[in-house]
Amino acid sequence: MLELRGLKKSFDGVRVLNGISLDVGAGEFVTLLGPSGCGKTTTLRIVAGLTAPDEGQVLLGGRDITGLPPEKRDVNTVFQSYALFPHMSVERNISYGLRVRGERKDQWHRRVREMLSLVALEGFEKRMPSQLSGGQRQRVAIARSVVLNPKLLLLDEPLGALDLKLRQQMQRELKDIQKRLGIAFLYITHDQEEALNMSDRIAIMREGRFEQVGAPEDIYERPVTRFAAGFIGQSNFLDCAVEGTLDDGAPVLNYFGRRFPGRKPGFPVRPGDSVSLCLRIERIRLLRRPSGECFLPGVLKSRHYAGGSIREIVELPGGQEVLAIQQSASEDRIAEGEQVFMVWNRGEAALVQ
Amino acid sequence: MRKKRREGSGAIWLVAPMAIWTILFVGVTLGYIVWLSFMTRNPDGLGVIPKFTLDNYLKILNPSYGKVLLNSLKLAALTTGVCLLIGYPFGYFMARAKKSRRSALMMLVIVPFWTNALVRVYGWRMLLMGDGPLNSLLLSIGAIQEPLKLLNTFGAVLLGMVYALLPFVILPAYSSIEKMDWALVEASRDMGASPARTFFSITLPMTAPGLLAGCVLTFVPSIGLFFMSDLLGGANEVFLGNLINTQLLKSRDWPFAAALSVVLMLLTSSILWVYRRAGGKSSDIAVF
C-alpha cells in the first residue's frame, strides 16, 4: 500500500538517507528501529510530506504522492511531542481535521464521541490539553490523527515521553486500536522491546540504510549483521574463522583452536573467511561436562543473583568474557573459579557479518 | 506561621529601596502633576496660584482641543495598524529564516537604534522637504510637475511614527513566532488544513500575545510622542503630545498642561488595563 523507492536525503551536505526502499502492506504494523540519528524520523517526515526527498519516490495505494503537500495526503501523523493545539479543547482538537473538511458540529460531534470511547477518554470533551496528564494527551493525539480514517498512520516515538508502566499499557492499547481500525502503522522507536512486542515487521535502520527488514522472530533468530543482532536482544559475539564446510553446507568454525559446526549463514562463506558467532545470552547453558556438538571450555568468573535469573560471566580460552543468563533454580551450582563448559545448540547461534 | 511572618518582615527591608525610589520619583512627581492640574494659572507668569479649580479639565472639552485628542487617537490607531501590517510579516519571516540570515535581519532592525532618534527624524525632514531629494527625484523622472507638499502633513507624522515604532512590533512578533512549537503548524497541515487555514487557526492565535504586546507598545507611545509631530507635522498638525509641550513651554499654562498630561496618562493606563484584562503579560511589553 505504501511504497518507498530509493529515498535519499541530505541536510547541509550530510547524508541522512542513503536510498531506502520499503513496502508497507494494508493494515500492517511496520516499525523503524534504530539509534538516534539513523534517519527514521526523516523517513517518516518524507512520507508525511513535511520534508521533501532529494531523490526517490513515495507511493500510496499505487499513486505517486512524492510532490504532494501534507494536507493532500491520505496519511496522518502522531507527533513525538503530541503537538496538541493548546488553545483548543480536547473536542476541538479531535474534530480539527473534520472541521477543516467543512463538517458542522452535528456531523463531527458523533465522531468525536466515538474517538473518545476508542481511546477511553469519555467525558473529556471540554478539557484543555494543559489539564491532561501525559498519557491522556497521548490518547487525544491518537484520537485526533485517526478521526480522518487515514490509510496509514505515522507514529514518531509516540510513547517515548511516558513512564515504563504506562508505556507498556499504551503498547497494548495502540496495537489493539491498530487491529480494530485496520489502519497500517509506520511506527518509529528506538526501544527494541516495543518493536518486538507490537510489530508485524521491523526495519532496523543504521546510518540512513535498512540493515535488515523482517518479522520480529526473523530478526531475533536470524540476524544478518552484527549491528542487527546487537540492536535486538543481548548477545555475545565470538570472532571465528571458517575452516571448511560440512556435507549439509554448514561451515566448520575455529575459535582459538577449538572446532565446532556453525549454522548455515544467509550469506556465502568460504574457508578462510572470518565471521561472528552470535550467542544470545539466554541460549547458553553452563555445564560441568561437554555435551552435544557445540561447546567451548571456560572458567566461571562471577555469578550475580538477580531474582528469577542468574547472570554468569565465563572467561573463554582467548580471554574474552561471555555473559550467560540462567534460570535461578539450578541445584548443581558451579562455584566461581571452576572449569565450565559453555554449551549451545547449533541452530540457535546465528552467524553474522 | 511564625516563621513565615519573620520572613515577611525581612522582605520589607529588601523592597524598601525600590519603594523609596518609586515614591520619590513616581509618586511625588505624579502627585505634583495631578495637584497642578487642579490649580489656577498665574496670569503674571510662571507657576500657579494655589486655588482649586476644575477649569483646566473643562477647557479640554472645548471642541478645538477635543479635535486634538481625536487627531491623536487617529494617529495612534493608524500607526499601530501600519506597524502591525509591516512588522508582523517581517517578524514572521525573520523567525522562519535560516539562523545565519536571521542575525543579519535582526541587525537591520536594531542598527537604527544606535543613532539618536532626533537625528534620524531630522534626516526624514531633509528627505521630505520641498526641495529635498525625494521631490527632486520625482521631478527629474517626470512623475510630478511641481514639488509635492510632503513635510508638515499628517502623512509625514504617520511615516515618522511608523519608522520609529516598527521595531516594537517586529521584536515581540518575532519572539512569539520563534517560541511557537512548529510541530503545531505541521500537525495542522497533516490534518488537511491549507497553509492559509493553518495560519488563521493556529499561528495567529498562538502568536496573539506577541501581537497584542506589539499593539500596546506602538499605540501607547504614539499618543504622546511629541517631537515627531513637532518636526514632521509643523504647526498645522497638532497632537496631544505637542499640545502639552506648547502649553507648558510656550503658553506657560502649567495647570492646563498638567490636566492634559493627566488625561493622557488615564488614556494609556486604560489601554494597559484592557491589555491585562485581555490576558496580556506585563513581561511581554517590558522592553525598555
What tags apply to this protein structure?
heterodimer, A: 353 residues, alpha+beta, Rossmann fold, OB fold (Dihydrolipoamide Acetyltransferase, E2P), 2 domains, six-stranded mixed sheet, five-stranded antiparallel sheet, elongated, B: 288 residues, mainly alpha, MetI-like fold, two-stranded antiparallel ribbon
User: SSE string of chain B, helix = H, strand = E?
Assistant: HEEHHHHHHHHHHHHH
Give the end-to-end Cα distance of chain A, rounded to a whole number of Å. 32 Å
CATH fold field value of chain B:
MetI-like fold
CATH homologous superfamily designation of the largest domain in chain A: P-loop containing nucleotide triphosphate hydrolases
Task: From the alpha carbons, calculate the radius of gyration of chain A and give it in angstroms.
Answer: 25 Å
Task: Please state how the strands of the largest beta sheet of chain B are arranged side by side.
Answer: 1-2
CATH class of the largest domain in chain A: Alpha Beta
